Amino acid sequence: MRFCKDCGTVLALFGEAGREFCSACVQLQKKLPPPAAEPADSGLLADAVLSHEAGKMVLRAKEGWELWSGPEGSGIKLGTLLARAERIYRIRLRRQKN
């Protein structure tokens, strides 16, 4: 016997059923909204260094790449800064592999 992995409904009494979920659970999954995107804090920037250089704030990766910089007195949300820096870091890692 095989059972639905979500609700436990019987899928097949005899033999092997090629599916893991019943049709009701499959339809329910189609109606649910997609999962939210992961936050920017995925650990890629754990070794990055924020420093003050020549009148501006600079965020550098461990490889020495400048991921973000901004004037000394300007304000920016930390979440925005990290999201931008992570995006730049991922692009540079991808380019380095090629």
Would you write up a description of this structure?
There is one protein chain. The chain has 98 residues and is of the alpha+beta class. The protein has two domains: 2-31, no CATH class; 49-97, no CATH class. 30% of the residues lie in helices and 21% in strands. The protein is built from two helices and five strands, in the order E-E-H-E-E-E-H. The chain has a three-stranded antiparallel sheet, with helices on one face. A two-stranded antiparallel ribbon has the order 1-2. A hairpin with a 5-residue loop joins strand 4 (56-60) and strand 5 (66-71). The model has no long low-confidence stretch (mean pLDDT 81).
The averaged pLDDT comes out at 81
Please provide the count of β strands.
5
Total number of distinct structural domains? 2
N-end to C-end Cα span: 49 Å
Strand content: 15-25%
Shape: elongated
Secondary structure tally, helices:
2
H/E element order: EEHEEEH
- Largest β sheet strand count, sense and barrel closure: 3 strands, antiparallel
* Helicity level: 25-40%
Strand order of the largest sheet: 3-4-5
Structural class: alpha+beta
Poorly predicted runs are none
Whole-number radius of gyration? Answer: 24 Å
Quick overview of this protein structure:
The protein is of the alpha+beta class.
What order do the helices and strands come in, and which of them pair?
Layout: E1 2-3, E2 10-12, H1 23-31, E3 49-53, E4 56-60, E5 66-71, H2 78-97
What features would you highlight for this structure?
98 residues, alpha+beta, 3-stranded antiparallel sheet, two-stranded antiparallel ribbon
